[in-house]
Amino acid sequence: MKLKSLHLTSDLYENVSYDEHAIPLVTCIDNFDDYVNRQWTTHWHDGFEMTTVIQGSCQYIINNGLHAEKITLQPGDGIFVNSGILHSVQALVHNTRTAGLVLPPTFFNFKGLDILRRSSVLPVINSGVSEITWQVDNPAELAITNNIKELCQLATDDPDYELHSLELVCRIWRLMVVQFRQDNHHQLSFTPNNQVDRVRVAIQYLHENYQRARVTVDEIANAINISRAECFRSFKAVLYQTPIEYLNDYRMAMAESMLTSSTQTVKEVALRCGFSNPSYFSSEFKKRVGMTPKKYRQTKQKG
After folding, report:
1. 3-class DSSP state for residue 102?
2. Which residue segment(s) compose the domain that 86 sits in?
């Protein structure tokens, strides 16, 4: 079974393809076991993202330009991620399933909804708020989760699909905006931080050079015209990792993908992922995944 991964451009942008219906949106129910390293790697998109956990547990890392925030979600919990926010998601346990939707920023741009857009959409976009969360133990907030699940389970061939979708999206947005106004009315401005932009460029550089056996922090820092110390600070602030820790995680994620989607030998995979010593690669892979590369490939092929 070939594991999935997000399709990103070099600057970590995900170009979301919206459904070809009168109501533009994307809904999905995902099992993170189907993804490389059980994660959605660091990315951003123009659309509004809303996700709730069906089972298992996952952790969002939100990079809002000021600092990185880790948010752990349990079944019934949910999160809204604003347009343009850099974020990643990691399942914390096997068989973690989520229901989610992505709305384009133009969703409420109908002329007849102009007042609604000005009063309930633009304040969210312009607030600088990167995310909003809700919990299963709050009855008012649980309604958001239940409506997201219902929306994700709609049959697209139902003659009332568009109308039902619009009804649910508006209800979800209303419930979320009520919470937004209660919790974030004081947060009206947003001061960008250069660290996020620096890390985006550095990640692009690492994605282009991860196959090389030796990539140093000095080299990464030089590529984005900052000092070695600032390179460390930026990665720690945005991703909670050092540059080399991120590089090694990316190499391992690419190795997992190659092992499940190609017939290359373990040695060939190791070399292609920047590990000059195949024995060291196998040892590190086992520490991270819990089995050797060979065993991992056999398990995925059977599964």
Report:
1. strand
2. 26-184
